[in-house]
């Protein structure tokens, strides 16, 4: 019986180190109603985020492409130490009745992680949230403010933070992403 718990702990430990765990299960924020997956596809730039161990560079962006089988090709990139780094993954709609709740995996051996679109206008900005429950005792979460351009007005960023906070998502540690000097991206 100890082995499954040890295995679970080993898989979750990297995420815990990267984030501050919060007591209790993940919040259940409202997601974008009438979400249109096709309109969401394309290039998104990271404007602000909760710090994440797997994102250390600058000029972070993600490109989403709908595939023939209705899965999503996900290509994320960043510039780290002057070098362009890319990672490819797959996204899926886990529940066709609620397409704003996607799952994304960058590995064949790991399960899909939640990638929930809380709000988007499709042409300017999107608010994305991901959370992993650990035995319903605590959770680690990620939140991103994304844009179709490398900048957003401060008022838009502040409104986005309010939306997260109104959904019981702690964004007090949210930091601005660096989107300067981004000649080598996707």
What does this structure look like?
By secondary structure, this protein is α+β, with helices and mostly antiparallel strands. It has one domain (2-176): Calycin beta-barrel core domain (Lipocalin, Beta Barrel), CATH 2.40.128.20. It is built from three helices and ten strands. The protein has helices at residues 2-18, 37-40, 154-166; strands at 22-23, 42-49, 58-66, 72-80, 83-93, 101-105, 113-120, 125-134, 138-147, 175-176. Strands 2-3-4-5-6-7-8-9 form an eight-stranded antiparallel barrel. Strand 4 (72-80) and strand 5 (83-93) form a beta hairpin. Mean pLDDT is 86; it is low at 1-18.
Notable characteristics:
186 residues; alpha+beta; 3 helices; 10 strands
Strand order of the largest sheet: 2-3-4-5-6-7-8-9
Order of helices and strands: HEHEEEEEEEEHE
Distance between the termini: 45 Å
Radius of gyration: 16 Å
CATH superfamily: Calycin beta-barrel core domain
Major sheet size, sense and barrel closure: 8 strands, antiparallel, barrel
Under CATH, the topology can be stated as Lipocalin
User: What number of structural domains do the residues give?
Assistant: 1
CATH class: Mainly Beta
The chain-level mean pLDDT equals: 86
- Indicate the low-confidence ranges by residue numbers: 1-18
Tally of strands: 10
CATH architecture descriptor text: Beta Barrel
Proportion of β residues?
35-45%
Number of contiguous helices: 3
Helix content: 10-25%
Shape, please?
Answer: globular
Q: Strand pairing plus helix content: what structural class?
A: alpha+beta
